[in-house]
Amino acid sequence: MMQAPRRATVRGPTFIRTLARLTAADLPQPTRSLSDQLSHWIDWTHAVALSTVLDRPAAALDDERIDSAAEADECARVRASLTGAIVGDAAFAAPPPTSGQADADEGPDYAFFRQRYLFLQQTMEAGVGRLRDRLRLKLSAQSADLARLADVDAVMERALSRRERSLLSVAPVLLAEHFERLRQNARAGSDEARVPGEAPAAAGEAWPDVFRKDMQDVLLAELDVRLQPAEGLLAALATNPHG
């Protein structure tokens, strides 16, 4: 008996692995290092700005005491707030009862889920952006090295924001393919509404519920990725001897 070929293991953040799990095709492994990728993503204007920040003489700073524990609490609050916005979104609310069997078989329209995904992406971008601004302000009041780090982070955010939006915009596209695959499998009477290698849906679990759970998992994993720069700034702030 012939066996289906095994899919290559995808390495990387949970966000990438979650999307790969929901995708029918194998995702290619990266062939460039991170530094090589950055050299292609940062244009000359941002490269000049970054060089200026790194070469600028350190300025004298006031000895302001920063409570790093308070900033850690703020980071936790932002994460909890954005997590709550995702989990409590209308996309994951119980659907209204259908008027007939035809409606139940057809299921929801993906356009609604796409609109909610884009809205939550905007919510995450705004919330994390404000958090990074706050942490950079705190770092700028500390040592010259930490102030320079804050400036570098600001330049990198401006340099990579458009590329980040472009890459993250792929998520709702892949989810659209997953949505249609689940619906088509349900119409065909399949009890395995996921790609090969995944566990089938639990007994009695409708395919829209499977999709809602998968979409929520992707959003929560994306939130983790978006928060990583802020967590790096927080870690730097925690090394400050005055915190």
Task: Write up what this structure looks like.
The structure is a single chain. It contains nine helices and no strands. It is elongated, with a radius of gyration of 22 Å. The longest helix is centred in the C-terminal third of the chain and has 32 residues, at 207-238. It starts with 13 loop residues before the first helix and ends in a 5-residue tail after the last helix. Helix 1 (14-21) runs antiparallel to helix 9 (207-238), helix 4 packs antiparallel against helix 6 (110-140) and helix 6 runs antiparallel to helix 7. 66% of the residues lie in helices and 0% in strands. With 243 residues, the protein is mostly helical. Pfam families: DUF3348. InterPro entries: DUF3348.
User: How many strands, which pairing sense, and closed or not: the largest β-sheet?
Assistant: none
Number of strands: 0
Low-confidence stretches: 1-7, 99-104
Helical segment tally?
9
Helix proportion? 55-70%
Termini separation comes to 64 Å
- Report the principal-axis shape: elongated
Protein name: DUF3348 domain-containing protein
Organism: Lysobacter gummosus
List the helices and strands and how they pair.
Blueprint: H1 14-21, H2 34-41, H3 44-55, H4 68-87, H5 101-106, H6 110-140, H7 144-168, H8 170-187, H9 207-238
Helix pairs in contact: 1-9, 3-7, 4-6, 4-9, 6-7, 6-8, 6-9, 7-9, 8-9
Pfam families: DUF3348
InterPro entries: DUF3348
Protein name: DUF3348 domain-containing protein
